[in-house]
Specification:
Elements lengths: L2 H8 L15 H27 L6 H24 L4 H17 L11
The chain binds magnesium ion.
The site of magnesium ion (MG) has 4 residues, from helix 2 and helix 3.
């Protein structure tokens, strides 16, 4: 499946109505918090594998993590849609940023705009 197709198909599961373009509305806040919450679920699954399963990822663990990654993706796609940006562009720009950092030997370190 293509990223933009995913983003479009996922819209039907978004119950938020009256999203104001160019504004940070309740739906944008909800979806942004959703990204953080679902990322936390990924981290929690890893924590449990580290502490309770001797760091061994079972097949079941893997697919449970994948489920949570999908939840993260859905929220990311929604926020991008509110910004009227195709998900493919989000990914493309991310790769461009990473390549730029690699080219400048700045892949590691901190700062959003290094
Ligand atoms: Mg989840």
């Amino acid at each position: 499946m293509k990223l933009d197709e995913y983003q479009e198909r996922g819209e039907k599961y978004d119950s938020s109505k009256n999203v104001e373009k160019g504004m940070v509305g309740d739906a944008m806040v909800e979806k942004t918090l959703g990204i953080a919450g679902e990322a936390g679920e990924v981290a929690d699954k890893l924590k449990k594998i580290i502490w309770w399963k001797d760091k061994k990822i079972s097949e079941e663990d893997k697919w449970e993590i994948v489920k949570e990654l999908g939840d993260v993706m859905w929220y990311v796609a929604a926020v991008a849609r509110y910004l009227e940006v195709p998900l493919s562009e989000v990914c493309e720009r991310n790769l461009e940023k990473l390549q730029s950092r690699m080219d400048r030997d700045r892949l590691f370190g901190d700062g959003d705009n290094r």
